[in-house]
Design brief:
Elements (H helix, E strand, L loop, with lengths): L3 E4 L2 E4 L4 E7 L5 E6 L6 E6 L6 E3 L7 E6 L4 E6 L8 E8 L6 E2 L6 E6 L1
Parallel strand pairs: 2-11
Antiparallel strand pairs: 1-3, 3-8, 4-5, 4-9, 5-6, 7-8, 9-10, 9-11
Length: about 120
């Protein structure tokens, strides 16, 4: 089973930037999701195993960029122009090659807090 470990969360002021990392035990398509208290986990972005295909939820388009380093088997989520509503615990997960189906278990997540 592919293991994924998230890191890079923290606290930042609105308008700031953070980069999250998702280190995988093997090369795979990866998606980022986020969850706030009392809400369902929502899809944020995904990238296929070769890096040639990406997806974003509408609310982060133009602000977040997903990328990957296949030497390190690591997927990054660069988050810029952060807003308080981006505050959440962010999780990465395996995805299908179509980037539409999540697979496998969840990691422990990494918390992002954006203050106004």
């Amino acid at each position: 089973q592919v293991q994924l470990v998230e890191s890079g969360g923290g606290s930042v002021q609105a308008g700031g930037s953070l980069r999250l990392s998702c280190e995988a035990s093997e090369r795979t398509s990866v998606g980022w999701y986020r969850q706030t208290a009392g809400k369902e986990r929502e899809f944020v972005s995904a990238i296929n195993s070769h890096g040639g295909s990406t997806r974003y939820v509408e609310s982060v388009k133009g602000r977040f960029t997903i990328s990957r380093d296949n030497v390190k088997n690591t997927v990054y989520l660069r988050m810029a122009k952060l807003k308080p509503e981006d505050t959440a615990v962010y999780f990465c997960s395996r995805m299908s090659s179509t980037l539409k189906i999540r697979r496998g278990s969840w990691g422990q997540g990494t918390r992002v807090t954006v203050s106004s």
